[in-house]
Design a protein that fits this description.
It contains two helices and nine strands; from the N terminus they run βββαβββαβββ. By secondary structure, the chain is an alpha+beta fold.
Length: about 150
């Protein structure tokens, strides 16, 4: 994994990879298949496993699913559901070389108009931002929220 930087997560993971047609693929335990290892996927896999470490239940974590935004098909990175199957946390993952900025924040807010998760995470693997959204305001919070059962 030396091509990708060490990320800012408290994880001790040995990710399983294979070479296929000159492409490195990483095992995604959530989607139950190998996926192309890109810098963004490197971050996505770290976030997903970090959520497990923080006691988020694996069956309630979805990776890279489609959603429709303004008539366009998009894909969210990670969505965690609460135990009543309502969106709880939407995570937007960027490549480590991508700065987290207002454009990134706007992207995740647009996705969340459809999903309505009360918590957001935005990360490039090196810098993480967490937000709480209620009906009237958006607030930055210092840490990943504890998983709630609904």
């Amino acid at each position: 994994m030396s091509v990708f930087p060490v990320l800012n997560f408290d994880l001790d993971m040995d990710f399983k990879t294979v070479q296929e047609n000159n492409t490195t693929k990483i095992w995604d335990a959530f989607r139950q298949k190998y996926v192309k290892l890109t810098p963004e996927e490197w971050v996505r896999q770290h976030v997903a496993h970090y959520l497990l470490k923080k006691n988020y239940p694996k069956p309630l974590i979805a990776l890279e699913k489609k959603l429709t935004v303004n008539g366009l098909t998009k894909r969210f990175d990670i969505l965690v559901f609460d135990s009543t199957n309502h969106p709880f946390l939407l995570a937007e993952c960027k490549s480590p070389d991508v700065q987290i900025d207002e454009k990134t924040l706007n992207q995740v807010l647009i996705y969340n108009r459809q999903l309505k998760a009360p918590y957001l995470m935005i990360t490039n693997g090196l810098t993480h931002y967490y937000l709480h959204i209620n009906e009237k305001e958006i607030n930055f919070i210092p840490n990943l929220p504890d998983f709630e059962t609904g």
